Sequence to fold (301 residues):
Amino acid sequence: MDVLSDVLATTRTGRPVSGMFERHAPWGRRYPRVEGAGFHVVLQGACVLLREGAEPVALAVGDAVFMPRGVVHALADQPGTALSETAGPGEPRTIPGPGAPATLLCGSYELAADRTHPLLAELPEVVHIPARLGTHPALRGAVELLSAELADPAPGADAAIPPLLDLLLLYMLRAHLADGTTGWAAAFADPAIAAALRGIHRDPSRPWTVESLGETAGLSRAAFARRFATTVGEPPLAYLTRWRMITAARHLREGDAPIAAVARHAGYGSEFAFAKAFKREYGQAPGKYRREGSGVVVAGV
Fold:
């Protein structure tokens, strides 16, 4: 599995939700913080995204905004419009008014807060992807398909919408990474670092060393270590441990494999060594972490 797909598969949880909304000026809605990520895409008209302490972000037709940490924000037809009640469950699909209409595609994704990957953690609170002619055609295609399903649900819509939302998330992240030059955007663009990352994700249980990762990257040990740390933001073996713990946490919460098997998959020869590393990362033993995730409470533990 490639790195971005692996990150999304490990971090995503639950089912995404979405809807289409038509607003006629003057209008303004507050959006509370959500546990996960949120997005808006402007399908018709224009609006502004407002956040306390930040400049308004003007959004035009085709613009997308992605909020990886579900930040508190508001949308309005223009900055000076009074904000009405907070958006939430039961939100009216249409707000009538005398002014120009705006049609929005809005939704959210559940993300496992305890399995946050640095790729997502480094994203700004609001990722604005402007609609520029000839850019990100896959994202535009996903928006069109999703809008069509939501506007006129046909038989099978319940099966079509969740994977289209997952595609939308992937294409928003791809668009942001394609437009970037630092951090994980730079890591994906660097053939040597990308090769090492693919090696880690392809086989996290392998007894990797800085030297063997450098060989995978086609670099000397020292050159690779410097380049990886500069690009990714942490040393290669620190990232390897981080990824092992993220995947182990997922297996513990979402699977039923014995802890010894999870330890082997994470590259640990003994359950004791794995438990020690896991507790250092998550503050509790693997068994307790699994029980808390399942809702099972064992007296005295």
Observations:
- DSSP finds twelve helices and ten strands in the chain.
- The longest strand covers residues 12-24.
- Confidence is low (pLDDT under 50) at residues 295-301.
